[in-house]
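User: Is it possible to get a 3D structure for a protein together with its bound compound? The compound here is WT7. I've pasted both below.
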Amino acid sequence: MTDRTPHPQTDLLTSAGPVAAPAAPAGRPRADAEALYAQAAADRLGFWAEQARLLSWEKPFTTVLDDTEAPFHRWFTDGTLNASANCLDRHVAAGLGDRVAYHWHGEEGETRTITYAGLLDEVQRFANALRGLGVTAGDVVGIHLPMIPEAVVAMLACARIGAVHNVVFGGFAPQAVGERLAACRARVLVTVDGARRKGRVTAVKQTLEETLRTLPDLEHVVVVGATGASCPMWPGRDSWYAEQCAAADPVCPAVPLPAEHPLFILYSSGSTAAPKGIVHTTGGYLTGVSYTHRIVFALDPERDVWFCTADIGWITGHSYLVYGPLLNGVTSVLFEGAPDHPHKAIWWELVERYGVTQLYTAPTAIRAAMNWGEELPGRHDLSSLRLLGSVGEPINPTAWQWYHRVIGGGRCPIVDTWWQTETGSIMIAPLPGATDAKPGSATRPLPGVSAELLDADGTPIATGTGLLALTEPWPSMLRTLYGDDQRYLDTYFSRFGKDTYLVGDAARLDEDGHYWILGRTDDVINVSGHRLSTAEVESAVAAHPGVAEVAVVAVPDELTGQAVVAFVTPAAARTGDAALEAELREHISVRIGKLARPKKIVWVEGLPKTRSGKIIRRLLRDLVTGQETGDVTTLGEPDVMAALTAAVTPPTH
Ligand code: WT7
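Assistant: Yes, that's possible. Here is the predicted structure of the complex:
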């Protein structure tokens, strides 16, 4: 069942009034910003062409947008360029080789300083190593690595020779990794012997081994020796990263590629159990991320130290930990660890130590830090900060105020940035210094971006609540879903036609033309800014022999934004008890990953269904959130509701 009713997270709508943009330590004069909006509105394609020309093109483009096969849009089609050359070679050629690209900070406090020249050197070697393994332009290379510099190297090495990277988040369980590698037919996988997490080491390669053997297209596995964890190596298939790099030719010229050459595939969850392979191409994606990184965060590459806390395995990591900062020649902090290890002030320690100027993180992390208490950030000098960013979910006003006051010292603008894996780069966000911030609102579409709020019939709404849509193509948009053009059309362009990209979020538009994102309208759950699909979790749970039937819903959660609640009917031979609960939690960890584990499992004898047998998730959601269950007249068996209400109501003592 696809429930199209928006289900806003209630506390997010209570807004404090507008907060005037402070006299900007970061940002641009208001008049400047207005001129930018006006310029983009007057000549959108000319505006994007101007942004694209800031990249370095091997062959300049003459066509800006080819929309003859809309919505399969193609940008800068006759130009050629290389992503890794834009991230590295041109800065080194400009004399910036000694600039630090990354201050890498390991879990136990070890550090590595990686300059632009050093990164270029290693990228060239590893690109040659990949070539030596038979990788050519268009081949897919899987990358499953923790937050270590080799992850960046592997991505850029692929880009250098036109291989398409598919980064699979390090927190995914073997089965989820295997599914994603199989779906994109990866020929090579770059992974690691072991990954550290909060002082413990997981033997990543060893754990994956069984899954890897089931992948018919996988020819080679390159293993980064990061921890010395036990690691079986298959002769002929497996090799060590360090040995590959040492043996490789140090020079690998970047291959000029057509602008529409695919740069990467990144799997994201949708409304069905099968993850969507979102495809991004070269010229348009790079244009979008470099432009947005520059203007939204008011960059000053000469002196900025940028800290994006996202994992490299998500789109935020791709766009604002790797491509955006490197394209703009900025110095970044790359932190291996968790925010609470070795202690709960580690981020603030890093801000002080590296003199971080912009911090980009997610509301869930801010809420966790709030819970840990403001004395922790108070122990560190955070005065280097001049701008704060938020991404991944709506930021509730309380967290916004805390972030502004405690982390930003009351002086740093906060940019609430709305975008998606599909959009590739930020779409809706304030321009620092120029847009009055409203805690909880991502404010306006950026210059060059056209958004509208639509009612159920697709008619634009001037103010009020509706469905968010993007109404003009933009360079960094996804081009398709890997191997499934039809699903691309069906998911994004079927409801309102090929000119209207349907986002999947509900939003409110206020009198100032500012957007307030309310949350997803499809069966996608946002846990700590990570996207999960109810269908994917359900199909994992249903595969357990102890389960007869299951329905999964999202409920608001103070810390993680949303959390998973599973309604489960045990199989005939089992009862809903602690033992089955433990088995299911473990089962979900193994099939998808820890982040998909339910916050709560409710044992039920039956699920509410329509007469045609579809589960009505809306009723379940209302039940767990304690709302009135409303109209139940479509229920097949109304009695089920009474039993369910009893199941979710805690006994009163
Ligand atoms: C969904 C996209 C974009 C990188 C991280 C997530 C939600 C994202 C915001 C924001 C309110 C937000 C939306 C969107 N979302 N940013 N600033 N305010 N909601 O990427 O996994 O592709 O998820 O995250 O619901 O559709 P993603």
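The pocket of WT7 is lined by residues 268, 315-316, 391-394, 416-421, 442, 504-505, 517, 520, 526, 529, 531 (CB under 6 Å). The CA atoms of residues 626 and 649 lie 9 Å apart.
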